[in-house]
């Protein structure tokens, strides 16, 4: 069966520090991968999605970037965090039909 | 541009009631629609998925319907329980490789 791992679960980082959030999927190949952000009291905002290795589409201009170095690995990064980067980050995967989400990373930038 | 709306934003009901959550979308050319549940501080759990050719899907006390022509989906929860308290989100997909577009969710509280 397929599983998705996302870590860390919580993170507190100072403004200006770098960020690396990792997501891996097991039990499938060539999945579509997604990074979403959920700000407090708001809906899910799609940040990046990828249909294959090295293929990244960015939805919203921002301080973040994404990479897919391996088929089932998706990384969300930032060189210098801003206060506005705080939020709940969710990784998801999908083959052709149903989408499945990780447990999320709560990022607080202080 | 596809937009997804969920009404109401919040709902409080006594235990045992049957309830309906609504989801509407502006572009009827969807590939599928998916309902999710989110508990506070947690990720999303997939509840039901309806393909564009289907009219409804059922799982236990949950029933989701889809009317593409009117751009609407409903999630029906029978005999609600306090454990059903969570935020319910609907999302649509334009094609098999495309992104999910989410509504802002309905926050449900089932009172004992």
C-alpha Rg of chain B, in Å? Answer: 13 Å
Average pLDDT rating of chain A: 91
Q: Flag low-confidence runs of chain A.
A: none
Give the SSE order of chain A as H and E letters: EEEEEEEEEEE
- Proportion of strand residues of chain A: over 45%
Task: Identify low-pLDDT runs of chain B.
Answer: none
Proportion in β-strands of chain B:
over 45%
Q: Terminal Cα separation of chain B, in Å?
A: 41 Å
Proportion in helices of chain B: under 10%
The secondary-structure element order of chain B is EEEEEEEEEEE
How would the global form of chain A be characterised? globular
Oligomer: heterodimer
The major pleated sheet of chain A works out as: 7 strands, mixed
Helix fraction of chain A by DSSP (H/I, runs of at least 4): under 10%
What structural class do you assign from the helix and strand content of chain A? mainly beta
From the spread of the alpha carbons, the general shape of chain B counts as: globular
**Strand count of chain A:** 11
Question: Count of helices of chain B?
Answer: 0
Number of helices of chain A: 0
Profile the largest sheet of chain B: 6 strands, mixed
